[in-house]
Amino acid sequence: MRKLLAVVLLIAPLAVAVALAAVRPTALPLGDGKVTTTGPKRGWIYSCESPRGGGPGAQADGPWIKGSTWDSTQKLAVGGSVAWQSTTRFRVSASSLRIGGNALPSHRTGVFPIRSSDPAYAYDRNPNAISAQSIAYSLPATPKVAAKASCVGMGPIGVMLTGAVLFNGLDAAGRDAAAHEVQDRCGGHPQMQGQYHYHSLSVCAAGNSTSAHSTLVGYALDGFGIYGLRGAGGTLLTNADLDACHGHVHTTSWRGTNVRMYHYHATREYPYTLGCFRGTPARGGG
């Protein structure tokens, strides 16, 4: 019994150290290769599509990528400051949450296409321009956990309170998008149809307390809430704290009431937001 206790006491600090290392902004684990089409896996993305490889995305790795890690504090951001008029609205009734609008962000963005004079152009030559979209989703007002988790697509997997949509953590080639692609200072950029989106939690989303549970920052397309980086008591979360879909169950603030329910969290480490859907997602909607 004493030997077992000694082993546990040795393993516990090691597990904590490994988890803390995973959230160091200067050495985040690179998510390349952590994608599957066969089922949920913690720390991976359960994708509805097999990675294509060689798709559009960054042309070259930036110096912030260092072997199997990347330094988010050194990564470039696309320059410029462009204002948009967001019309995205969230309307809750007894049975549904309806989300509709133009999917433009309520914050300023960088200039896209990326200008050749922008230092980001040396690594990412995103040729797409941001344009208004038309999104319309009807999600359950009281989402329920499904019997089986489901895959996430390569398009929208959620809508954030900023008005812009959330994509999963992969670029078109199946790599860690947050690490490889160069986004603007709010962590967003447009795809080929002009849809501005994030691959991770935007720093321009709702602020996060360091001493309390993070606030709601958006909704996944299964209706469950997406919260920021911190759990109960302000603890900075890692993959180890969450399930394969990147969520867990405990009491949190839900539309002004404390409710014990399933919800997703963003983390600093890949896959950043959803690894899969824990509820039944709305598909399409645009």
What do you see in this structure?
The chain is mostly beta strands and 286 residues long. The protein has one domain (2-265). The chain has helices spanning 2-21, 177-180, and strands at 28-29, 35-36, 45-46, 65-66, 69-70, 89-92, 96-101, 135-140, 158-160, 165-166, 188-190, 196-198, 216-220, 225-227, 247-254, 257-265. The radius of gyration is 19 Å and the shape is globular.
Radius of gyration: 19 Å
Helix/strand order: HEEEEEEEEEEHEEEEEE
Largest sheet: spatial strand order = 11-12-10-9-13-14-16-15
Q: What can be said about the biggest beta sheet? A: 8 strands, mixed
Strand percent estimate:
15-25%
Mean pLDDT: 91
Number of strands: 16
Helix content: under 10%
Distance N terminus to C terminus? Answer: 59 Å
Instruction: Quickly count the domains.
Output: 1
Structural class from helices and strands?
A: mainly beta
In short, what is this structure?
The chain is mainly β and 286 residues long. The protein is built from two helices and 16 strands. The termini are far apart.
